[in-house]
């Protein structure tokens, strides 16, 4: 089954389903791209580079028109409108990507160090330590730096001086995906997905648990079969929060109470997105689904990207955008999922979630290209 091919990735802490090798000589083959009739015009506004991500996910941080991007070797750079403002090289490799607000940006290391720097010039501000490797971009907001570590802990630090304010931990599972998604902070609630199919809400003030929702229920005879992790970022619309689980479901909950609104049996490690009408999901076989936001009913499915290991979808204007393992960006019609444009990048995998930069698209490839793309 799908999970069996992922065993080595789970044991190694792989951030995605990269153990499923679409270039292997046996088993299902990755879909080859067929010609499309482009009806939307897309172009690269600017293209810069920061450095290689290796097998990790490095998500750039966007603050107004500034982009902060990092590489595995410790390089961090700031780009304003595509122009490099500064570039620094840290003494240790990075593992957790970049979080930022107007005054500071924060990165994490495999040794559990949390490093904060000034956004103005990259000068160091403070250093703190987490309980293990930093696996996701720190969340920097409302005077807090909230960090997710590899031992499934959330910890909050004072954004000014780095003093730890609270820590939250759930029991571990024998096998789990490497969860590289940042937590989400809304109205003093901190939301994060965990192994075992759980979506957790804790207090931003003190880390106390507020509610727990079952996105998916682990099932199967073996520990591998029972992996049902929420490894991607939950998404929020008004008073509803939705999350996806690998070998599980897409589930939406009431934001305040945690009560289940609806659920659909779709497995996704890449994640989902939401807009005013739909919930969009990239499943583990390479299909993109649009679901009715109110009920979860299927509205359309684009299945021509089989095993191309897609990013989470990103709504952009009247389109839905996904990236794939060969660095191709696909633009879909929001109403029916048909292809309207396609843009190749540098040929390396797109693993990191796509970002918005104003009304445009921002992405970082595994080889370290950082691109802003305009849809005309």
Map the helices and strands.
Layout: H1 2-5, H2 7-12, E1 42-49, E2 61-63, E3 66-70, E4 75-80, E5 83-89, E6 94-100, E7 104-109, E8 113-118, E9 124-129, E10 139-141, E11 144-148, E12 153-158, E13 164-169, E14 184-186, E15 189-194, E16 198-203, E17 209-214, E18 235-237, E19 240-244, E20 250-254, E21 260-264, E22 271-274, E23 278-282, E24 288-292, E25 298-302, E26 314-316, E27 319-323, E28 328-333, E29 339-344, E30 355-357, E31 360-364, E32 369-375
Antiparallel strand pairs: 1-32, 2-3, 3-4, 4-5, 6-7, 7-8, 8-9, 10-11, 11-12, 12-13, 14-15, 15-16, 16-17, 18-19, 19-20, 20-21, 22-23, 23-24, 24-25, 26-27, 27-28, 28-29, 30-31, 31-32
Give a short overview.
The chain is mainly β.
Task: Describe the model.
The chain has 376 residues and is mainly beta. Helix content is 3%, strand content 44%. It is built from 2 helices and 32 strands. It has helices at residues 2-5, 7-12, and strands at 42-49, 61-63, 66-70, 75-80, 83-89, 94-100, 104-109, 113-118, 124-129, 139-141, 144-148, 153-158, 164-169, 184-186, 189-194, 198-203, 209-214, 235-237, 240-244, 250-254, 260-264, 271-274, 278-282, 288-292, 298-302, 314-316, 319-323, 328-333, 339-344, 355-357, 360-364, 369-375. The strands form 8 sheets. A 4-stranded antiparallel beta sheet has the order 1-32-31-30, with no helix packed on it. β23 (278-282) and β24 (288-292) form a beta hairpin. The longest helix is centred in the N-terminal third of the chain and has 6 residues, at 7-12. The termini are far apart. The model is unreliable at 1-24 (pLDDT under 50).
